[in-house]
Design goal:
One of its GO terms (molecular function) is zinc ion binding. By secondary structure, the protein is mostly helical. The protein is built from nine helices and 14 strands. The strands form six sheets. Strands 6-5-7 form a three-stranded antiparallel β-sheet, with no helix packed on it. The protein has a three-stranded antiparallel β-sheet with strand order 9-8-10.
Length: 452
């Protein structure tokens, strides 16, 4: 085997019960191999329970398996013993002294060595040197060795000084065989190894379920981070685009304001020009009339009769006045109707903006990542085989973040939430923020019909 490049160790062919090289090895149905005498003696202790457990994997068998000699493993072990390779590849290691956290050997005198095994029958811990009698002597063959432990007394029944090898499901206690025949008679009992195996399976199921839930939560967290990133990027783009739209609207309003001002000025210039032309014409006619009046006054004072008769013929006919257009004679003439039309336009624009802004608010409010809370889900995981013994694990309820209340306080601003400590604000149709009183006055003014 050494020539083939395979390095073997003595522990590979050790029986897990006696911790020595296999003698007459047999293999049980789960695949583990033991010395024939070791596994027979181990199962003889549990024969009255009718349940037989593998000392390594804790798998149970019922009925008791029939043991057969493993001839292939026997040949390998015999060849391994003959080669003596286990002595060459496993050098002798000197005793190691016990440190602060190590279990001290109960047999060593002076400075104690580190224990490697504890005996549940002797209730003592042994180092590598002093544990050898448990491997070599037939008297210690039925003693049960475990990894070195400081709490050996916890495995002993305080009443009967026997190993706690049975678990009472009724009282949920570890008991010994004498307790089983005494105060725990008639209770639901099982081997402690079998209960440990069942608990380990349940813990494995719980661990697997926890891992699945953790993976699900990690996936949801990744999706949530991706949603936050996408929403943030989309919000930035929407804000920039809305800024461009509102800037264009502001420019359009400014242009209309300039056009109205120029229209008023043009109308003023046209009306004043027409009035001035008519005024000039009237002044000319007044001048002609004054001239004619002066001529008539001069003739009326002429004493020469011949000259009077000749001159009076030329001024006998009065000058003909031209027809004048209708003139509005009102000292309070103003652009009042124009201002009325501007006010009507303002009201109409406010109504359009208000409806548009409410629609915008509703669309913005609908863009959410965390929705309303979901119903509570309860998951139950059984920890023991006892009827009615279950541990329920309740999934946490996802609560919406603050400020995302879906109940608007006013149609002008659906984002506002009711609350006495939060000051109430609304937005005017043009986006200006109004306090509570200003909003009420604004709504009262909007309640009156517009002027016609």
């Amino acid at each position: 085997m050494a020539q083939a490049g395979v390095v073997l160790d003595k522990d590979q062919f050790n029986c897990s019960i006696c911790l020595d090289v296999l003698r007459d090895p047999v293999t049980i149905p789960c695949g583990h191999s033991y010395c024939s005498d070791c596994i027979e003696n181990y199962w003889d202790q549990d024969d009255y329970l009718g349940v037989f457990v593998c000392p390594q994997c804790r798998q149970t068998f019922n009925p008791r398996p029939v043991l057969a000699r493993n001839t292939m493993l026997t040949d390998v072990v015999e060849r391994f013993k003959k080669t003596g390779l286990h002595d060459s590849v496993t050098p002798q290691v000197g005793p190691s002294f016990a440190e602060a956290d190590d279990v001290e050997c109960d047999v060593c005198t002076g400075r104690k060595n580190k224990s490697v095994k504890s005996c549940l029958v002797c209730l003592a811990s042994y180092c590598d040197l002093h544990v050898q009698p448990h491997y070599e002597s037939v008297a210690f063959r039925k003693h049960k060795l475990v990894s070195a432990s400081k709490n050996l007394q916890e495995t002993i029944c305080p009443r009967h000084d026997k190993l706690l090898e049975v678990y009472c499901r009724t009282d949920r206690l570890c008991i010994c065989y004498l307790c089983l025949a005494d105060e725990h008679k008639g209770h639901d009992t099982v081997l402690a190894e079998a209960e440990i195996q069942q608990r380990q399976r349940q813990l494995g199921d719980m661990k697997q379920s926890s891992q699945l839930r953790m993976q699900q939560r990690e996936k949801e967290a990744q999706e949530l981070r991706q949603a936050i990133f996408s929403l943030t990027r989309s919000a930035r783009a929407a804000a920039e685009e809305s800024d461009a739209v509102f800037t264009e609207l502001i420019r359009s309003i400014e242009l209309k304001r300039f056009e109205v001002r120029e229209l008023i000025k043009a109308q003023e210039k046209t009306a004043v020009s027409q009035a001035e032309q008519l005024l000039d014409k009237i002044q000319k006619e007044i001048t002609e009339l004054k001239k004619n009046e002066a001529e008539l006054d001069r003739l009326s004072h002429t004493e020469h009769h011949v000259h009077f008769l000749q001159s009076s013929q030329s001024v006998a006919v009065s000058p003909v006045l031209s027809a004048l257009p209708s003139v509005t004679v009102d000292p309070n003439l103003t652009f009042g109707p124009v201002m009325t039309a501007v006010s009507d336009f303002k009201g109409l624009l406010q109504e359009v903006c208000q409806g548009g802004f409410v629609s915008i608010y509703e669309r913005v409010r609908d863009v959410v990542i965390v929705g309303p809370p979901v119903p509570t889900v309860q998951l139950s995981t059984t920890h023991t085989a006892d009827a009615g013994s279950a541990a329920q694990m309740e999934a946490p309820t996802v609560m919406p973040p603050r400020g995302l209340d879906q109940s608007p306080v006013s149609p002008l601003n659906p984002f506002l939430t009711p609350g006495p400590v939060v000051p109430t604000f609304a937005f005017s149709p043009f986006g200006a923020k109004l306090s509570t009183g200003a909003r009420q006055r604004h709504l009262q003014r909007r309640a009156h019909p517009r002027r016609k």
